[in-house]
Amino acid sequence: MDRELGPAGRDELSGSPARSVTDRLRGAVERNALALGTLGTVAVLVVTFYHPVGTVLLEAVVDGGRLTLGPLLAVLADPFYTGVASGLFAEPLAVPGGILAWLGQVSLSPFAVPSASLGLIGFTAYQAALSTVASVALGLPGAYLLSRFEFRGRRTIRSLTILPFVLPSIMVAVGFLAMFGANGVFNDVLRVFGLGPFRLLFTLEIVILAHAFYNAPLVTRLVTAAWESVDASGVETARAMGASPRRAFRDVVVPQLLPALLTAALLAFVFTFMTFPIVLALGGLRLATLEVWLYARVRDLALAEAAAIGTIETVVTLSLTYLYLRYEARTAGTTDRGRPLTRRPLFDGVRSLADPVRLALLGYGAVVVVVFVGPLLSMVVESVTTPSGAFTTAYWQFLVDQQTAATAGTVQPLQAVVRSLLFGAGTLLLAVPMGVVVSVLSVRGGRGSRAVEAVLTAPLAVSGVVVGLGLLQTLVFGTVLFGQRIVLTGAVAVVAAHAVSAYPFVTRNVAPALGGLDPRVVDAARSLGASRVRTLLDVELPLVATSVLAGAAFAFAISVGEFDATVILAEGVDSATMPVALERYIGNRSIGPSLGPATAMGTVLLAVTAVSFFAIDRLGGRYER
Amino acid sequence: MTDQPSVAVELEDVSVRYGELAALDSVSLSVEPGEFFTLVGPSGCGKTTTLRVLAGLETPTAGSVRVDGVDVTDRPPEARNVGIVFQSYALFSHMSVRENVGYGLRFRDPPDGRSPAERVAYLLELVDLGGMGDRDPTELSGGQRQRVALARALAPGPDLLLLDEPLSALDARLRERLRVTVRRIQQDLGTTTVYVTHDQAEALAVSDRVAVVNDGRVEQVARPETVYREPASRFVAEFVGDNNLFEADVVGGDVARLVDAPDVTVPLPTEHPAGERVTLSVRPESLRLGGGDVTLDVRVENSEFLGEAYRLHCEWVGRELLVRAPERASGDIEVGFDREAVHVL
What we know:
A: MetI-like fold; MetI-like fold; two-stranded parallel sheet; B: five-stranded antiparallel β-sheet
């Protein structure tokens, strides 16, 4: 009996003084490691997110130490921003007449830009709404195709719908330039048939198409997931009770798809409301959205006005994201799947040609190829062809040739590539531990863990330009925080900004995996003598290793593709990343006679993000939520 | 053995409350060294909460927990030296069987002077998994996994072994075989053990003592035979085994009149004051076909064949009586029982 209890067990119980001081110290560190990690995460967030963003927001409402609505009202009452609604803030009594006038102007063709009547904010919402509609229209047939039909490559295409999360938007813009530009592939093909050329760039249509490129896969992905989790026996029960196939679809399937569709639409609206590089590159200032104009004001150093714009934008996006989270929380918890609906083969011999549904889907496939494959392929093709169509390696030569690039005021391409990869690695070092800590808190934090998660995931909902602006005004210019003067150099600020926008993706991957573990596994490890942190390191993290790696791949891809905050922080040519270099190459055609350098750089960016994509896909990253 | 305390584990007035809800309501229990002590009750009764309090996985809102006389109420699980086995096995699927069993030895020395490797090998032998050390837990059957979990819990030589419905995920036959194995190993090692189950038959079969738990309170703590034959409350009488309960009014001394059938008098094994309302329990196996000290006219509605006997579901004055009989029966029959079969609650 006593022999069984053993000396070690006795020591544990009586806290014998035989335990060395270092053991005790290690024990103390282990006991408090989670608290330390939380403190560290909160500190990083305060320094690189809440304080900078708070500074921007404060600047909009505080003037000389006094609370004022001046700057906000100045923006809201300016017809340039709010269009006819400006009367609401400038002359509230004249509103009723104004509304009538406004109604008269909106009911024009949907593509006629009514910026005069809507104002900048109205236009931003208007293009976001159009983009959302376009994304749903382009994405929904894809969900139908992927969830109801079986064909070769279905699984590959299904995993490809994750791409928009990792494709840098500035690169997508370059792809669209290469595809739809005056000398682009699209016009080249039309010319063969004696058509065109069409001038597509700098139109609202092309901006919306690019937004659809980005957000339609999101719609497809979320709705496909919902459709695949529809229990076939529900439909069969309805049919057995006398419902026609159409009626069963309406009564049983549609209600289960609607939440996913609304979620996707809401996200698409938030994303396109905050849109930046795509409009910057494809629309220009004539089609400027809030974010683009905000960027322009920052470059003109009109920081107070920029702060007011940023505040209005943040209020809108945070409210929408709050709605989204509320909605998601309400629809969550339908995880137990029944038997999924069976898929029909897409190709069913000659008869498929007579089936209108299948023909329509084939037509849809053609559209998908033009919209999705076209831009990326065009970019790669344009990187090795001259405007006249001849093969050239000049653009790639430009990338590796430091001498040519050393012209004053241009970004050295090779350095931008190296810098992007280094920033990506730095982001991993910061974002992965932060993401893991937040995951642990949200899964096992007990009461208030939802609130913790909300506070710690807010960065997702604030635009990169606002974060960048805040970082610029606080850390880069120098700030006094906790009695210490803190100045971050550009590179550190960039990594910090990247980590803040990347770690929610780590959390999104790790938290569900941790939550899916049997909590008894943790209990077992602890009863065997492992502290909370040892349990995390020995048991929980190894069990969810693939999710951690997938989250890391996401974080890396987000960092490599991040543009919004980087372009603000990387004002000098010596801190530009690949996406920033891309934008400079698009804007400064003097480097080369064509889009060439940008397409070559874009191809490199595509290769890096493709590697991240395959890593994520292999590791089973989550993006449904 | 004089220096050995007579109480290994003690709960004193332990309560666990979640807001208004009391999962445990002032529970006091003491477990003797080397004892196999079982908590049994319906789901949600608080037996698992009691176990989690013992393990340190749940902190009581009130009361204290002592192990070998030392107050451990506020100690985290890793500072308690308890072994715990769950229904879901909770094996570390990224570790081999050997690494699983050896995990606790990273934090505590083996209790018997063996090296950690020898201790692991010894325990794998003990649970009959000698050749399985290099396997992944996922390659094992449910019964094998549960034996790995048992070996893992025992490896550091715990002061207290806690078993939380360890057999409930297994099929009936395996469950019965494994519970004998668990009992044999527990007796070999002499480890004080607290076992949680909702299966009253299992509780009666393996335990030194049983605590019947209901609604956050302990109804009875006693040897299995006592719990079965002399249930302390109506709940225990109904929860443990099949039973027939009768309300009766004592008419004087050792005779009572059944409330449902006032013309039937029952001789009681003990004296009670006249006029007292008592509840009598008579086990189905104490009822027999034909007459006795008390004879009841019943109608057989159904006979279930159980293998070694039949369970007759009988209708008597509008309620059900259970009778264990050696043969099938049907229609209107007489069943009877004797004074010795009557237990007064």
